[in-house]
Each structure stands twice: as C-alpha cells, then as structure tokens.
Design a protein that fits this description.
Strand order of the largest sheet: 2-1-3-12-5-13-10
Number of helices: 8
Distance between the termini: 35 Å
Structural class: alpha/beta
Number of domains: 1
CATH architecture: Alpha-Beta Complex
CATH class: Alpha Beta
Radius of gyration: 17 Å
Order of helices and strands: EHEHEEHEEEEEEEEHHEEHEEHH
Helix content: 25-40%
C-alpha cells in the first residue's frame, strides 16, 4: 500500500467509552496513514446517519473514506493495513466492506460473505471468505469509498440509521462500479440487533427509489423483493416479529 495514500476514518459516537476503546485499538494499527474524524452524537445532534456522515464529508481530506462503527476492533496490529491494501488495488471500486451479500440470493445466513467475527463472545457466521469477493451490497459496520465517489454521490436525504451503506452500493452499481467484501481480521462486537420498524420503513423507501433498477436488493439482514408487494409489505414485518421473538427467547439467529 502506498505510504502517501491518506485514509479518513469516520465514526459516529454515542457512547464515549466505546469510542475511547475504539481509539485504543486503532492506535495499535501499523502502516496506515490516517486522520480520525469523530462525529459526536451523544446528545442526538443528528437525526440520521446520512446527515451525520455528510457533515464529515466537508472535513475529510483522505483519498479514501472509511465509515466505521465505534464498536469495531482490530484483531492484530496489521489488520487495518492488510484490509486497506486490498481496497486500493480495486480499480473499479464502488464500495468495499467486511461483510456483505451477493445479488439475487434467497436470504439465509449462509449466503452472507465475511471473514470477521461478531458479537460477544465472538463467533463467525455466514460463508467465510479468504479472497476479495464481489457482492451487491455491504454491511454498515465498516465500509470504504473513494473520496471522489463520495463527493459525486453524497449520502441521500433518507432519514434514520439504516441501510446507508446498502444505498451507496446501489448507487455505485448504477454508476458502473462494483462492490466487494474483503477478507479482514476484525471483530464487530455488537449483537447486530438492528431490525426494527424504522428499518422496515427505510427498506421500503430504498425499494421505492431503486426498485425499478433492482428487482431484488440483498442485504446482510434480508432480501427485499422490490417488485413484489407481498415481499415488500408483508414479509419484512413478519421477519421482524420472528426476529424479536428469537431475541426474547435468547436465540441468536440471523
């Protein structure tokens, strides 16, 4: 990886302790030229992730922008360097992430592609990869775009905290680029319980805006059948209800 490449690492912070632990893990990384941009949201300064990230685009000076949850951790001192070395080699890059889902799949946890570990205690889920893999969309926990792409395609006006990386992936595909999941030695210790009614509303809005281009939108949470009213309006709430039941019963399923 070229030493003169600058990466802007951007994270939204709601809990200072989580952020300080993230900074500690980041400081241990070697071989990466970066600036860290903290977006404070401890007092709900922002009403959506897209608005928060757009505010950081005005400050970021990096050649590549990394959007990362503050509950991500790096498993060894070269984790970030090795991941980003793969990213800078992608000539047709739209969005790169560390977890994602291929196009036109019947959603199941085995269709997800990743190499990172999740939850606490950490474990793998999905299909483990050992090489760069093309996908339709990537997960929001960690994703990378070129600064030039972000300037051309800033985050949209959709409100809330869901599917913003998914939307950027769809925009990238419409712009003739490709999206990838890269192998990475990282830990996302969140439980990943992101499904709620706002998620469903956001998914429906994504389907409304992009459904004419993508009959299916595959994400790490579910597959949206954008041109099927049953798949769009009935199935997601049923999946949400089932997911919430599993959570109440203490069953960890994706």
């Amino acid at each position: 990886m070229q030493e003169n490449v600058l990466f802007s690492i951007i994270t939204i912070v709601n809990k200072e302790k989580v952020y300080q632990d993230f900074k500690k893990s980041l400081k241990e990384q070697e071989g990466v030229n970066y600036e860290l941009i903290k977006i404070a949201n401890d007092n709900n300064q922002f009403d959506s992730a897209r608005t928060a990230y757009n505010s950081a685009l005005e400050k970021a000076k990096g050649d590549y922008l990394i959007f990362i949850h503050p509950d991500m951790r790096f498993l060894d001192k070269n984790s970030l360097q090795d991941a980003l070395a793969q990213v800078v080699e992608l000539k047709d890059l739209g969005v790169a992430g560390v977890a994602g889902c291929p196009d036109k799949v019947h959603h199941h946890k085995s269709t997800l592609v990743t190499s990172i570990v999740h939850d606490n205690p950490p474990h793998h889920f999905g299909k483990l990869i050992d090489k760069v893999t093309e996908v339709q969309t990537v997960d929001e926990c960690f994703f990378v775009m070129k600064r030039s792409f972000c300037k051309k395609h800033p985050f949209s006006s959709i409100q809330g905290w869901h599917m913003y990386a998914v939307e950027q992936c769809l925009i990238a595909l419409l712009d003739g680029k490709k999206n990838y999941v890269i192998p990475a030695r990282m830990w996302h210790y969140s439980t990943g319980n992101s499904e709620n009614w706002q998620y469903i509303q956001t998914g429906r809005e994504i389907a409304r805006r992009y459904g004419k281009y993508f009959p299916t939108i595959s994400t790490t949470i579910t597959t949206w059948e954008t041109q099927n009213w049953i798949g769009l309006f009935i199935i997601p709430p049923l999946k949400l209800a089932k997911h919430n039941l599993w959570r109440k019963l203490g069953i960890n399923k994706k």
